[in-house]
Structures are given as C-alpha cells and as structure tokens.
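Now for a sample.
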Amino acid sequence: MFRRASLVSHACLAPLLAFLAPECAAIAAPAAQAYPLQLLHGSRLLLAARVNGHDVQALLDSAAEATILDRAFARRIGLLPGEAVQGQGSGAAAFDAELVKGVSLEAVGLELPGQEVAVADLSDVGRRLLGRPIDVILGRELFDAARLEIDAGHRRIRVLAGGEQPRGTRLELVSEHGIETVPVSIEGHPAVRATFDLGNGAQVLVSRAYAQRLGLLDDGRAVHREAGGGLGGETRRETFVLKGLVIAGQAFTQVAAAIDPQASASDLNVGMSVLRYFVLTTDYAGRAVWLRPAR
C-alpha cells in the first residue's frame, strides 16, 4: 500500500496502482510456454524478468499492489526519481518510496508497457528474507495481465492459452484493501477471507482482531515471540500453532501461525507454507483462482 506524502488525508493509491490504462494492456506470447521458477529456501518464488529491457531476477508476490524496484537497481538502469510516497508493508513501520511512471515490465512471455511502479530500498528485506540482494518484487500487474499456472513443486510457471480450462477447486477472489482474498477456515470455524499471498514465505498470518474473536491467544496453547516482518523493517510477532486449516477442500494440521497487528489486515493471510502444496491457476481478471493438490 502506498500513500502520497504530500496529501494530508493520506488517501490510498491502490485504485491507481491496480488498474492498467487501455494502451498498457499486456501483449502475450503466442505459445503457452513454461518458464522456470526458482524456489528459494523452499518458500520464495523467483523468476526471470526484464525492467526497461534490463534482465533481473524478481520475487513473485501476488499480494503486492504494485511492482517495487530496489532504489539502487532503479538508479543503475537510469530511472529518475519519482513522486515521493509512503508505503506500508508487513514490517514494523512505514517506508519511504517513489512512484515512477512509464516503466516497461516483461516476464513469462508477457510485455507490460507503461506501468507505474514503486521504488524503495529493498536491501533490508533482501538480507533478512532471502539472504541475498533483491532488485525487484513483481506484483499484481503480472496477475492482472493473464491467467497463470504456477507449479512450485516442478519449478515452473506458464500463461494458460485461451480456452484452456484450469483444473482444481475454483475459489472466488474478493478484494480487501486492494489485495485479493480467498475463503479459508481454521479449527472448524466458518470460512473467512484470507489474503492470497505468494510473497508470504513464512507462517500463516492471523489478524489480531480475528485471533481475539476466536480466543486463540488465551485458550492455553503455547504462544512465543519471534522475529518477522517484510518491508518496513523487522518486527517481533506472537507465534503459535493452528490445530487445523482448510482451503479448497484440503485439510492441514499443526499449521505454524503468527499475529498480524496491522489494522488493515484480512482475517487470515495464507502464503507459501500452505500454497506450495498446490498447483495454482490465477485469473485476477476473472476474479478466481483454482487450487489442485500437487503430485
């Protein structure tokens, strides 16, 4: 989420970042070629991309409202400073960023010209989460542009050809605060909306408000504090274990979880700790994802 630093109201820019202008529509490659994915530390998806014609390894993040470039990388490829804004990631504090227009993105055979991207210092998040520098976090622009099949187990991603029917259980996408969510239930409770977050390589996140409604922190289960957080710096979170979680009809037990203290958080956030066990087909334009168990 990004907010213009000059606005007293700090109005959210999600609507501006989430939609492409008609002249910026994606140009798809003719063949449904599979492209390699790198699964770093078993939980982070990296893929080859290009920014203004420059090759780069990008972190794939389905819950990023906009693609984010590391400031040093942006300067190396000649991007001029943009409009100052503030961003709110999953870390302890807001972070300074810039919005830069007219950037060309390419990945998995898709060309995305004329994009507005964010530029921020990614050195801390790269060091803590990846153990290496990260130049680009590739966000929802790619997911808005095409129907994607993501197979982390076989380390591949492809654009589904027109008319090819996705396999698996279909889940409706619903936007909350500019982020896409799917239905998930925990410990036998009715399903709630969970952020669909391929950029979350750690525990399932539970909003503090939802945890309090269910009494998850005062029902006798062990609760610890561990380091976590992404953009915005390291934070310490209360961690615990969920007895069960169900998504797309598949049940998981003894699921590691942590509290997300942000007021804007969805009730749950499900990332690669769970989603890596599925082959995923995303169709943001069609407002759906399909999950089928990986083999």
Summary: Residues 2-159 form a domain with the Cathepsin D, subunit A; domain 1 fold (CATH 2.40.70.10). Residues 1-25, 27-31 have pLDDT under 50 and may be disordered. The first helix runs from residue 14 to 18.
